[in-house]
Prior knowledge:
A: 80% helix, B: MetI-like fold
Amino acid sequence: MIGRRGWVSLGSVAAFLLLWFVLTSATGAISPGRFPSPADFWVSLKQIATRGYAGAPLLSHALQSLKLVIMGFAIAVATGVPLGLLMGWNRRAEAAINPIFLIIRPIPPLAWIPLAILWLGLGDAAKIMVIWFAAFVPSVINSYAGVRAIDRPIIEAARMLGTPRWRLVSEVIAPAASPMIFTGLRLSLQASWTTLVAAELVGALAGIGFVLNVAQQDIYPGMILVGMAAVGVLGWATTWLLGRAERRALAWNVAGRD
Amino acid sequence: MRDLALPLNERLLLGALGLAGFIGLWTLLSAAGFVPRQFLPTPLDVLSRILSLLQSPFAGATLQQHLASSFQRYAYGVLLAAAIGVPLGLMMGWFRLLDDIVTPLFDALRFIAPIAWVPFAALWFGTGVGGPILIIFAGAFPPCLINAYRGARFVEPRLIEAARMLGTGNLRMILEILLPAATPSIVAGLRVSAGLGWQSLVGAELIVAAAGVGFMMVQAQANVATPTVMAGMAAIGVVGMLIDIALRQGEAWLRRRRGLDA
Lengths: 258, 262
C-alpha cells in the first residue's frame, strides 16, 4: 500500500518531470543550449552507453571512477580507523598526533588537488592520494570520538576478567566504537565522491568527472546532465551498500537497526 | 576510558614533539634531497613564498587580493544558501504537504556532489562571480535546509499546542515559535554549511574562475611553482579556520544569551 505521503511524493516527482518537459521541449522557455530536454538527455544517454563519449562508453567511465573511489576509500579507512582508535585509546599518542591534525585539518581536501597533480601527474595515483586525504580525516575523527564515548564500566569489566590487550581492542573497543566509526565511514564516502569528481574535472583521461569536463568544453548540455545523473546514481549506490554493511555489522545494536 | 589525564606539561611536550617530528621530517625530505626541492619545498620556502605573495602579484593579483575575491564569492554563495534554505526548511517543518512535495526531489538531488554542478555553472553564469556562487550554494544549501527542518520538526509539541490554542496564525507560528525554538539547530547547520561552502569554493575556483586563491593554485601548478601551491593551501586553511572560529564564537554567544549554557 502506498500511503498518502507516497502518492504526494510520486505526484511531486511526476510534476517535476512534466515541468521539465514543458519548459524545454513543449514551450522552449529554456533554450536547449542551456538545459537539455528529456529527449536530449535520452539521446545523450544512448550515445554514451552504446557508442561511447570522451573515449569510452559510460560503463567503463563509471567503473574507472568507482575503482578510484573504492581504492582511495579503502586505504583511508585502513589507515584512518586504526589511527583514530589509537588516539582514542592512548592519551600519549593523542597528545603527540593531535597538533599535526590541527594544522592539516583546516585545509579542504580539494585544495590538495593541484599538489597531487604536481607530485603524481594526471593518472590514478594522484586521485587516490586526494581521495585518501579527503576520506582519512572523517575516519580518524569519528573512530577517535567513538572510543572516547565508550562507557568505562565495559572496559573495566573486560579488564577485571583479565582480557589481554589485543583482545580488548579487537573484541571490546572496536565493536563498542563501531556505530561512530560507521558514521565516519559514511562521511568519508561522501567526501571521496566529491573529491574524485573535482579531481577528474581538473585533470583526467577517463572517468565520470572527465565526461563532465569534455561535455562542458563541447557545450553539450545533454551529456552534462548524463554525467551528473551518473555521479548521483554512483554516490547513491555506494552509500546504499555501505548502509547494508552497517546494518549487518551492527545487527546487535538497536540504534543501528533502523 | 583510561582516565589518567596527562599532566599539562607532558601534553604540551608530546604535542611539541609530534609537531617537531612532522616539520623535521618534511624539512629533512626536501633539504636533504630525498625529494626534489622543486616538488617539495621546505617549510621555510613556503613561509617566505607567502610573505612575498603578499607584496608581489601572482596570476594577476597578490595573495590578499585573491583571498578577497574568493571571500566575496563565498559570502554571496553561503548567504544565498541560508536565505533560501532556512526559510524553506522551517516551512517544510510546518506544512506537511510542502514536506512531502520537496523531500523526494531534495533526496534525488542530494547525491549529486556539489562539484558536479561545475559544467552547468560555467554554462549558465560564466566563470566570473556567478558560476562559483552556484557551486558554493550547492555545497552549502543542504545543511541549511536539513537543520532548519529538523529544528522545526522537533519543537516541543506543548509550545505548538499552546500557541494554537491562542489562535496563532501560520506566519506567526513559524516566525515566533518555530524559528526561535529551531535556532540552535539552525546555527549548527550554518556552521556545517560554512565549512562545506568553503570546500566547494576551492573546488569551483580550481575549475571555473579567473581569480581567487584556487585559480592562483591552478596557475601555480601549471608553472610547477610548488611553493606557491602550498602557500595557497596554507591561506585557504587559515581562512577556513578563522571562519570556523568566528562561527563557533557566534554559536557560544547565542547559547549564552539564550541561557542554555549557564
